């Protein structure tokens, strides 16, 4: 049985990486999905094409370019989803950047960019979808934070990034209180997942990170997508305000 049949979803930053895996998993579970991208248009269009031609995908799949750090463009993204699908049941705030600048070198514009893409976008997208979700008396919001906001391990010392991801946790808990009982708001904290965002990372650091996992590997985008399907489905109806770590047990020893 398709677990998201009849549901409509926006997945921000779903042209590639974790977002693309979430969009694909939602589509295979029967949801209508609006794939959002900013720069990677070709990848987004290819994903729409692949999913639309997949006989297992029954919902409507489309894409929309919006820089989610811009409130006006975020509102246009929500308006597009409402026009396409007539409703929004699921919002995944996944779009994110990692500028990889050390603390002393981080300029005000870098800090603002990180905060605007990683945190401000989620705040205002939640604000834009909430009235519709409250009116229909159900909704699921999933914020993609990071395990770096919970515990420091090797590698990630980028203070602006970690601060933005810690902000996602506060946003999640506070919104769960504000939007209950009709909207479930949860966050996922991925460990290190093999995507473009960590392409700069030397192999040696990746190996160390893999060893810090109790499962002796890095994560795959699908690991986060599977958890997202659960949080978007009725199976998680009694879960809200939670911060769920998907990091192969990293940080436990
Ligand atoms: N990979 C990891 O190890 C890891 C760990 C913890 C948390 N995360 C989080 O997971 C999320 C996805 O990251 P990823 O690993 O999949 O990285 P990725 O492969 O670099 O993908 C990032 C996505 O965000 C989109 N994006 C960036 N800026 C945007 C903007 N202004 N407006 C709209 N979309 C924007 C990109 O779209 P365009 O290319 O079209 O601009 C792309 O689809 C991020 O929030 C990241 O912080 C990742």
Number of H- or I-type helical stretches: 7
Order of helices and strands: EHEHEHEHEHEHHE
Q: Which kinds of small molecule does this entry bind, naming each only once?
A: NADP nicotinamide-adenine-dinucleotide phosphate
Total tally of structural domains: 1
Biggest sheet: strand arrangement: 3-2-1-4-5-6-7
Cα-atom radius of gyration: 17 Å
Query: Sheet bearing the most strands, described?
Result: 7 strands, parallel
How many β strands by DSSP? 7
Regions with little confidence, pLDDT below 50 for 5+ residues: none
* CATH classification, class level: Alpha Beta
End-to-end C-alpha gap: 38 Å
Describe the protein's architecture and organization:
With about 250 residues, the chain is α/β, with parallel strands linked by helices. It has one domain (about 10-245): NAD(P)-binding Rossmann-like Domain (Rossmann fold), CATH 3.40.50. Helix content is about 45%, strand content about 15%. It has a 7-stranded parallel sheet with strand order 3-2-1-4-5-6-7, with helices on both faces. Helix 2 links the parallel strand 2 and strand 3. Helix 3 runs parallel beside helix 4 and helix 4 (about 110-135) runs parallel beside helix 5. The termini are far apart. The model has no long low-confidence stretch (mean pLDDT about 95). NADP nicotinamide-adenine-dinucleotide phosphate (NAP) binds near residues 12, 15, 17, 67 and 192. NADP nicotinamide-adenine-dinucleotide phosphate (NAP) binds near residues 17, 18, 68 and 198.
């Amino acid at each position: 049985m398709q677990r998201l049949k009849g549901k409509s979803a926006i997945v921000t930053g779903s042209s590639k990486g974790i977002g693309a895996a979430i969009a694909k998993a939602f589509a295979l579970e029967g949801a209508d999905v609006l794939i959002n991208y900013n720069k990677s248009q070709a990848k987004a269009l290819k994903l729409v094409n692949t999913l639309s031609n997949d006989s297992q995908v029954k919902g409507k799949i489309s894409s929309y370019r919006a820089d989610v750090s811009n409130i006006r463009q975020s509102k246009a993204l929500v308006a597009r989803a409402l026009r396409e699908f007539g409703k929004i049941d699921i919002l995944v705030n996944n779009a994110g950047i990692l500028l990889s600048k050390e603390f002393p070198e981080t300029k005000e514009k870098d800090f603002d960019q990180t905060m605007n893409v990683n945190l401000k976008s989620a705040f205002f997208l939640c604000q834009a979808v909430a009235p519709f979700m409250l009116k229909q008396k159900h909704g699921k919001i999933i914020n993609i934070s990071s395990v770096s906001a919970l515990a420091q391990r090797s590698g990630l010392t980028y203070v602006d990034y970690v601060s933005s991801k810690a902000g996602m946790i506060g946003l999640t808990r506070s919104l769960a209180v504000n939007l209950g009982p009709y909207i479930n708001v949860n966050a996922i904290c991925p460990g290190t997942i093999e995507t473009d965002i960590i392409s700069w990372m030397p192999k040696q650091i990746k190996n160390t990170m893999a060893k810090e996992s109790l499962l002796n590997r890095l994560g795959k985008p699908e690991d986060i997508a599977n958890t997202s399907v659960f949080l978007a489905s009725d199976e998680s109806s009694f879960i809200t305000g939670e911060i769920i770590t998907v990091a192969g047990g990293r940080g436990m020893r």
